[in-house]
Amino acid sequence: MAPNDSAGTNGTAAPGTKGAVAGRRKAVRYIVPVAVAGVAAATIGLVPALASSGDPDLPKITAQELIEKIAASDTQQLSGTVKISTDLGIPSMGGLAGSFVPDGAGDKGSASADPQTKLTELASGTHTLRVAADGPDKQRVSILDRASEYSLIHNGDQVWAYDSKSNTVYHAEGRAEDRAEAGEHRAAPDGVPTTPKALAEQALKAADGTTSVRVEGTAQVAGRDAYRLVIKPEQSGSTIGSITVAVDAENGVPLKFTLQPSSGGKAAIDAGFTSVDFDRPDASSFSFTPPKGAEVTEADEAEGHGKAEAEKAKGDLSAFEGMNVIGKGWNTIAEFKTPGGAALPSEGSGEVPAEAQQFLDSLGDKVTGKFGSGTVFKTRLVNALMTDDGRVYVGAVTKDALVKAADNAG
């Protein structure tokens, strides 16, 4: 078993991870239309789920060496099964989805196979994914359900998404760089945080002077020997307790990613391989032909609706006053003001559907301080304080930390 070796985080870790992060294409964007839920969903890159079996006896390695091993990993071919479990402590949305669906989102411009809507399912519950990759231009991610499957396939300049349940297809064509220059939406598996490697890269970017990074023993994941890299905030007040990454001892590929909240209990996010193979996947894994009778929506057709919604959202957001960043590291808090200092709609105001109001009330705690009064909306990772005079404070910090930030900002 490897001893507990630590690595300083006063800027030495970031350069080691830069190479692994650079060039990653941000291919898919999605929004969960509730402020706190949306921020929490963005942290899906942080989760725990797979049991390890046995502690292999591996050569000694320092945390810095292990971080460099991850960054230097050039493995581009793999296939396997990933299990992702997410428990952010958000009450069930139930029948709320319809309350937050933008006008027109149910028309043909928003196909059910569109990744922007389907991938939000990973924000809660447990899911089994089948993944495959063969270099930067060929990836496939399939979300498996009991009686259906959703697949997202990227092959060169072609992107296909297929939902077998609704027999609908989404198709995008053109190189990612060309579409990005044109300002068009581009959906592809690369960049989607569906593997431990993508999640680990996000976590390692946060390894600065406020973080402890140590090698704490070994594990075996999906039949592979691995080192356990443990990342912990050194500041008090963070909702993140620790992040554990199981790193393949042979090739440096992260095999499992676990985020434990500071409040304890079940892990908030858990993602790891249950099986993995580093041989080149069969070429057929990246080929797709729409099934007979399937409804096919072209990206340009869907983007017409998407751009209209994006412009509307951009206009809505422009009404918010400039964001101010409070604190640093894991205790960073974003502060901004709502349009006109508007407070949260009160019960019986009729400004939001009854179901939505019930959902918001179930999340909120009334708080008071030097700043006045307000409501803290909670998840297990991301919390938000909305004051009665229209100020909002959001961060992966505790309720007390938000109240303190509001008091000091007043």
Give a verbal description of the structure:
The chain is an alpha+beta fold. The protein folds into 2 domains: 5-306, outer membrane lipoprotein receptor (LolB), chain A, CATH 2.50.20.10; 321-409, TATA-Binding Protein. 22% of the residues lie in helices and 32% in strands. It has 10 helices and 19 strands. The protein has helices at residues 13-21, 35-42, 63-72, 97-100, 115-118, 176-181, 196-204, 299-318, 354-363, 399-409, and strands spanning 5-7, 77-86, 125-134, 138-144, 149-155, 158-163, 168-173, 211-221, 224-233, 240-248, 254-261, 269-277, 295-298, 324-326, 333-337, 364-369, 372-377, 383-387, 391-395. It has a 13-stranded mixed beta sheet. The chain has a 6-stranded antiparallel beta sheet with strand order 14-15-19-18-17-16. A hairpin with a 4-residue loop joins strand 6 and strand 7. The longest helix is centred in the last third of the chain and has 20 residues, at 299-318. The protein is globular and about 65 Å long.
